[in-house]
Design brief:
Helices cover 35% and strands 21% of the residues. Helix 1 crosses helix 3 and helix 6 packs antiparallel against helix 15. The chain is globular, with a radius of gyration of 24 Å. The two termini are 36 Å apart.
Length: 497
C-alpha cells in the first residue's frame, strides 16, 4: 500500500539520479534503501530514474538483483512491500564506468539522453573516494551531460585538511557552480537536528534564555559502540577529528549557537552557521595541549562481548585517534564565556548522539530547611537513537511535612508523541537534493572555515609524535576527558540508558 505523500517532501521534478559508486557500501546500505522508502511514500515523480554507475560488469538485470537484495537486507521486514520494490526496480539502470578510464562514459551519456522528459533534472551522487570527485566531474563535463539545472552530491570527508579541501572544491567548481553543489552531512537530515531550529525559534519562552547570561555550558556527544571494522584502512588516515569533529559535531555546534536568521531558507541558515565557525576561538598550540584529549581504544568488553584493541584490528601500532574530546569557545556577544565541550569516540559504553544545554544554577537558595537541592536545568536533545528531547527540572516531591526537592524530567519522544515514523536522514536529504533545496547541505565557505579551525589541532598533534591515551573498549573514554571538564568544575552529562 502506498503511504500518504507529504507536499513538503515530494520531489515534483522528473530526475535522473546517477549514483557513481552504485555498488558500494554506501549505495547499497543507505542510498538505495532510502530511495525505496521514498518510492513507498510516493515521493518520487513519475519518470524519475536511478542509474547505478560502477566498475562491475553488470547489466540492468544484474544490478536490479543487487538492489533487491540490498533493500531486503537493509529495510525492516515489516516495511517491505514487493509491489513497491518492483516499482523501484523499474526505475533502475546500470552502466559500467571507471573514474580512471574514459571507457563507459559514452554509455552513460546515451542512457541519460533516453530520458522521457526534455526538462529532466540530472543529479550525480558521487558515492566514491573524495580524490575522484574532480576527475568524475570532468568526465561528466566532457560527455556533455552537465546542464545549468544539474546537481552534484559530494560525500564526506571533503579532503584531509584545508589545502586538500580547497583543491577538491576548485576541481568540482570548474564544472559545477556553487548552487549546484550539495555537500552532504547525514547528521543534518536527522529529525531531532532539524527540530532544534524549531525548538529555538518557534518557542518564545526559550530564545530569551539562549545566551551566556542563562546558559552555563553546552555538551555535544557522538558515541559509538562499534569499532573501525573493515574501515580500518580508511580510518587510520582519517581519525576521529577528521571523521566526526570537522563535520558532524561542528555542524551541531553551529545549529546550537547560530543567530536567528530572518527566516529558515536556502541561504539564511548557512549564512548564520558560517558566522559561528568564523567566531570560534582559534586554537594555539598551548590551547591544543590544554583543551583537547585524544584516545585510542584498547581491548575490552562491549555489549557483553570481548573486542580487540584498535591497534590489533589495524595489525600494527598507530598514532591515529579513535576518541576526541575538546573545549571550544564561540567569541561573540551571545556566547562569550560559555564553553562548548565536544566528544566523540568508537568502542564506547553506549551508542548515542546528543546535545546537552546546561543552564546556570539558580542564583539564590529560596527554600531553607528543605530536603534535597536544586539542580541546574538541562535540555537534552537526543539525535540518535530514540530521537527526542528531555528537559530536566527541579520539582517538589508530593506529600506533607515540608518541602522535598527532587529532579524530574519532561520527556518528548518522537516515537511515542507522533503517529508517524521519522524518515531516515538519507531519505530526507536525497529528496532535498531532488527538489534542489540546499538548506541542510554545507556550502564551500562552511567546509573551509571548519577545516581552518581544525587544522591547528591536527598540526599540533602531529608535531608531538605521541600516541593517543588508551581507554578500555566499553568505557566512556580516557580519564583525561573527565579531567577536561572537572578542571572547570563540570562533569559530562550522561542520559539514562
Amino acid at each position: 500500500m502506498t503511504l500518504p505523500t507529504s507536499e513538503l517532501a515530494t520531489a515534483s521534478s522528473v530526475c535522473d539520479l546517477t549514483v557513481v559508486g552504485g555498488t558500494g557500501d554506501l549505495a547499497l546500505r543507505k542510498l538505495l534503501p532510502a530511495l525505496y522508502q521514498s518510492e513507498r511514500r510516493g515521493n518520487l515523480a513519475p519518470g524519475t530514474r536511478v542509474i547505478g554507475g560502477s566498475r562491475h560488469d553488470l547489466d540492468d538485470a544484474g544490478y536490479r538483483a543487487m538492489v533487491r537484495e540490498a533493500v531486503h537486507t537493509h529495510v525492516p521486514a515489516h516495511e517491505l512491500d514487493e509491489t513497491v520494490i518492483e516499482r523501484l526496480l523499474d526505475r533502475v539502470r546500470h552502466v559500467v564506468v571507471d573514474a580512471d578510464s574514459p571507457e563507459g562514459w559514452d554509455e552513460l551519456h546515451g542512457v541519460l539522453k533516453q530520458a522521457e522528459s526534455d526538462d529532466v533534472v540530472r543529479v550525480f551522487y558521487l558515492a566514491v573516494a573524495p580524490r575522484l570527485f574532480g576527475p568524475i566531474c570532468q568526465r561528466l563535463d566532457d560527455i556533455g551531460v552537465v546542464e545549468p539545472t544539474s546537481r552534484v552530491v559530494l560525500e564526506k570527508p571533503l579532503g584531509t585538511d584545508l589545502a586538500s579541501a580547497r583543491r577538491i572544491n576548485d576541481a568540482v567548481g570548474q564544472v559545477f557552480d556553487e548552487p549546484q553543489i550539495f555537500r552532504i552531512d547525514h547528521y543534518l537530515g536527522k529529525e531531532s537536528v532539524q527540530n532544534l531550529l524549531v525548538t529555538r525559534f518557534a518557542n518564545t519562552f526559550l530564545e530569551p534564555l539562549w545566551n551566556s547570561r542563562w546558559i552555563d555550558h553546552v555538551q555535544i556527544t557522538a558515541a559509538e559502540t562499534l569499532g573501525v571494522g573493515e574501515r580500518s584502512g580508511y580510518y587510520d588516515t582519517s581519525g576521529a577529528l577528521r571523521d566526526m569533529v570537522q563535520n558532524h559535531l561542528l555542524q551541531l555546534l553551529c545549529l546550537v549557537a547560530m543567530e536567528p536568521p530572518t527566516y529558515v531558507g536556502r541561504e539564511t541558515v548557512r549564512d548564520e552557521k558560517l558566522k559561528v565557525l568564523q567566531a570560534l576561538k582559534p586554537m594555539s598550540p598551548e590551547d591544543v595541549d590544554r583543551d583537547t584529549v585524544r584516545g585510542s581504544y584498547a581491548a575490552g568488553v562491549v555489549d557483553g562481548a570481548e573486542v580487540p584493541a584498535y591497534a590489533d584490528e589495524l595489525g600494527r601500532p598507530s598514532q591515529t585517534e579513535t576518541f576526541v574530546a575538546l573545549r571550544a569557545e564561540v567569541q561573540n556577544w551571545r556566547w562569550a564565556g560559555v564553553p562548548f565541550y565536544l566528544r566523540t569516540g568508537k568502542r564506547m559504553d553506549r551508542r548515542t548522539s546528543e546535545i546537552v544545554v546546561v543552564f546556570k544554577a539558580p542564583p539564590h537558595a529560596m527554600f531553607p530547611g528543605s530536603e534535597g537541592a536544586t539542580e541546574p536545568n538541562r535540555l537534552h536533545i537526543r539525535v540518535q537513537p530514540d530521537e527526542g528531547m528531555h528537559l530536566h527540572m527541579t520539582v517538589k516531591e508530593p506529600g506533607p511535612g515540608g518541602i522535598r526537592l527532587r529532579p524530574a524530567t519532561l520527556d518528548l519522544s518522537y516515537a511515542t508523541a507522533f503517529d508517524a515514523v521519522s524518515p531516515e536522514a538519507y531519505e530526507r536529504l536525497l529528496l532535498d537534493v531532488l527538489k534542489g533545496n540546499p538548506t541542510l547541505f554545507m556550502r564551500r565557505d562552511e567546509v573551509e572555515a571548519a577545516w581552518a579551525w581544525v587544522e591547528p589541532v591536527l598540526q599540533r598533534w602531529s608535531s608531538l609524535d605521541e600516541r593517543p591515551d588508551e581507554y578500555p573498549a566499553g568505557s566512556s573514554g580516557p580519564a583525561a576527558a573527565e579531567a577536561l571538564l572537572e578542571r572547570d568544575g563540570r562533569t559530562w552529562q550522561e542520559t539514562d540508558r
